[in-house]
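Objective 1.3, modelling of assemblies. Example input:
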Amino acid sequence: MTLTQRQILVMAAAALTALLASALPLHGFGIVVVVTLAGLDILLLQATAWLALRRGSGLDERQTALRDLAHRRGFRGIGMAVLLLWLVWFLSLVAVTSGGSGGAPGAAIDSGIAGRILVVIAELLIMLPTCVVAWWEVGTAEPDGIAAGRGQGGQRRWVAWLLLPAIVAAWLLAVTWGPPQSVAHGSISVSGSGPVSDWTCHEFGGGTMIGAEFGGTVGLRAYVCWNGTDAFVWGDPNLPLPASLNRNFKPFTAHDFDAAMTLETGCGLDNVSDFAAVGQTTCAERIDASGTMHYTVSARVSPIPFGIASREVTLDLVVTRTGKVLERP
Amino acid sequence: MSATPVREPRRRRLVAKRPGPAGLLALAVALLVLVIVTLGAAVGSDIPSILPTLGYLVLLFVTWGVVAGVRREPGSWLGRRAIRRGVVVAIAADCVGVVATSSPGAQLGSATVLLLLFLVLLNIALGRATERMATAPDGSVDERQEALRNRAHRLAYPVFAVIVGALLLADVVSTQSRTWTEHVLGSGGVLVFLELLFVLPGMVLAVIEPAPPPPEPDAPARSRAANVQARVAVALVVTVFALPFLASVGVVVLPVHNSAVVNTFPPAPPPQVSGTPGAPGAGDEQVTSPPCGSFMSTVYAGWGVSAELPVFADACWDGHRASTPPGSSSTYYPNCWSGALVAVTTEQCTPITTTGLDGTLTVTWSATVSPELLPFLSRHVTVQVIIDRNGHVEIHG
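Predicted structure (tokens):
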């Protein structure tokens, strides 16, 4: 492989890494990006004869020096790469939110480091020295035998490509059979009196993650108020208000709904669907005779199109008329 | 692929710049800091409270520059292999301590601040011990050093990857481990990450670098200028580390001082009826308005490391007594006491207002303050804004 071809591979890998690091929505196709990136990585590793990952015993002095130099430049490049990728994320976030397709401001759930970012960091840690070798090394870095694709070298070429189905299988296994993980409430915590003086309100957030950062997350965000007679969700125009409230409270205006929904209550606002599509999200509220509110969010997490191997996720929030939380995600 | 013949390594050692005006500059800056602190503490002047911090930052940068310019002599004690490895172990332990003692989202505690200061010291020591070979420009290292530092980076790379990879793995494994990851990253973990990113190759280099050769008997003696610069560097490092502790002692021993008292918008004075019964014109009541003022200032306990309290008092006076005008708020500032590296253990935010027999109005705040770097020291501070019957204001601490 020529130097130009290797540099094109490096640029392609960088572009995919930037896509993962950006805030652009992946709509459940993150695994496609990851597998493509892994394929590019294998090509790069083979083009450099796995030099950056090889131990010293089979290398001559020049190869050893090149490998060590690549690690030095790679190590120094980590900080710069993190900075650049953060810039990509920030600019793309601005572009996405200004385009009106962004999610809710703030975060009602804290799902840790997103799976796509984990892949980015792993890519940097594993591949930067190889990229350095591929970018700078003039001529071939391949020892005799490997370049010709014969013998043990040829077998290694073939075996490496097994990594791709292995990644897909592991991902599918995690999303379809992996135990769901609960997601904590995010940094936003709003609490206090409601729009009416005798209400007390609190924001509840949480969720369930399928596939451990590499699947989908169903989030719940609800601003719940209680007045001693009923507990109810405030700010979602699709949810009914309790009868006790309707007698005393004038209907919302559209502006009220917009403001409340943007900040406090939202159905599906906190779903994360980078590696699996999260669809059919429904949010339902029921207030029983004792004034206790039952708020239920349900959604379907589908790793593969057409609902194949999909999983149903249901989140329940139960709050009494005095504000006691009986169940929460 | 054929190996290229190994060239005779260029025996060019890292050469430090000859001592220039940096030492004098550092002394001047240190003197400036000293003057600012001393002058401010002595006369309670209106020097902005940010100045000591700025001065300290300048001192830090100058110290860094002077230390970077000092040449390490072969065979110096810091270059010994055991010492170098000891420094590496200390840095690793310090990093663990930083993560263990810090909590997410909170202000850094005294233990963490101490460990960070110690980490800076260790980094300087590591840089001196390895001649900052890991980050030196390409032109200033010989081939042996180039190969050595490249090897150090190769060894450091998997160590760094394993540490970061463990964090990534913890983010995936379970909810509990993800919470732990968030805790680590939200607290001192980021600082440790940066430390490893910039210093880990130097740490590996310190471990793998062979012991330096003994000094040759006929080697030229160190120049006088180099000696002076080395001593200045040591003095500056000591000053950098001693200043926060000295300033912490200042919280307890220095007199409380305050910024200039500013009279802002005076409150509306209460109307008063005057007139003397039986006198000519008796019965013609006259409405007068006594003078009033809203006095603001900031009171400091300590310099650089200090607790501060914004004080505010409304008062009117008529020559007989000073009083608080009706409707004046008793809670003057919601944030009350605050401090830089100072813990305010007990505080009284709502002031006590009293009027003396001589008509003097006294507004009193109090708190117990303790420097975070020396938590075994503490001091009870009482601040009084005294407004006499003629409207003269004094602040006592």
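The interface with chain A takes residues 1-4, 6, 147, 149-151, 153-154, 156-157, 160-161, 164-165, 168, 171-175, 178-179, 181-182, 197-198, 201 of chain B (CB under 8 Å).
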